[in-house]
Amino acid sequence: MSEPSMIATGISGRLIAMMAVCCALAVSTIYYHQPLLSQIASSFGLVPTQASLITTLTQLGYAIGLLLIVPLADCRQPRRIASLAIAANAGALLACAAAPSFAMLCASSFVVGMTAITAQIIIPALSALATPSARGRVVGTLLSGLSAGLLLARTIGGFLGAHGGWRAVFALAAVIDVLLLIIVTRRLPTAANLASISYAALLRSLGSLVREEPMLRISAASGFMLFAAFSALWASLAVLLSQPPYEFGPAAIGLLGLVALLGIVASPRIGALADRLGTRSMVLAGAIALCVGFVFIAAGGHSLGWLIVGMVLLDFGNRAGLVANQTRIYALRAEARSRLNTVFMGAYFLGGAAGAALGSYGAQRAGWVGLAAVGALFAIAAAVINALSPRRSCTVLADVCS
Fold this sequence. Notes:
- By secondary structure, the protein is an all-alpha fold.
- It has helices at residues 3-9, 13-27, 37-43, 52-68, 78-97, 102-114, 119-129, 135-164, 166-187, 199-212, 214-241, 250-255, 260-277, 279-298, 304-330, 337-386, 394-401.
- It is globular and about 55 Å long.
């Protein structure tokens, strides 16, 4: 990043890029298993749809980790909190690799999700260093890293699972955590102006933020619905693609994650659009993209081409909603960004757990059409909730106040 660009954002381009890589490595641990669900089910003698419980518990664990761990970054050094979480995550991944039963795998997966929250410590920390006019761009770039992690996890997970088995995937993920730990302990910036508050008071303050910030409530509720819609697909995709007419293996299913490349390239531009056009419009655009995407997903049982188009639209819709929602909550209270992020991302991943569970149910009952119906209903609910938000962009308001 050139010097003028650094002045415009308030952060060096090298640091943003490095932290985007950390976001990718951190979030990847909750997605490695998704192309492997049929393989995992087979190894434990289960029906394929039963393995979707791993996705639900991982997302639920992530939401709990956001609630109980991430708020600490407002009163403790984010670098220390992140380092401890990464170490615990590596241990949970090794437990998954060695799990002797499906019950143990589910329990370990919950802990993997709970401790995979480093990206949600990094993003508020970097957002605090960004200038208000460039916050959406910085958040969008970091979320590009987050999306790259999702892509990396599904593609590598599917390929390695096909050749080395699903246990090898979890073992590799633990090794990758070691690399993440080295980068975070050396390069995550030290936070200034940390709050002097007890842990109990910190958790109680989450309720105060929800009561006092209507924009936070709207962003959290719409984020819940948007990610529920998106997760409905990925919790069921491996199972549906392993059945006729496709009968894909883990490697082929993982390769379908490459459709996220378009969204990764688009994330910084989505952030810039949120800065310019307003976050309300971007969340609405995301919800519409998801609705249209599920029309194509419904035809996915008959045409791989329609399925890919639907996946691209779902990826864009989820990404647009996430960037816009996070941009507008970070503009609310500078001293409570980690807690604001906790409320929002906690709701977001609770939505992921709900979407995974209901998407699997819809797919079990009515295949591709049942899955699409569940996802479309979530997306419509997100659009309705977002319509309650003020027309003026919260980013614009932040600029005025600054």
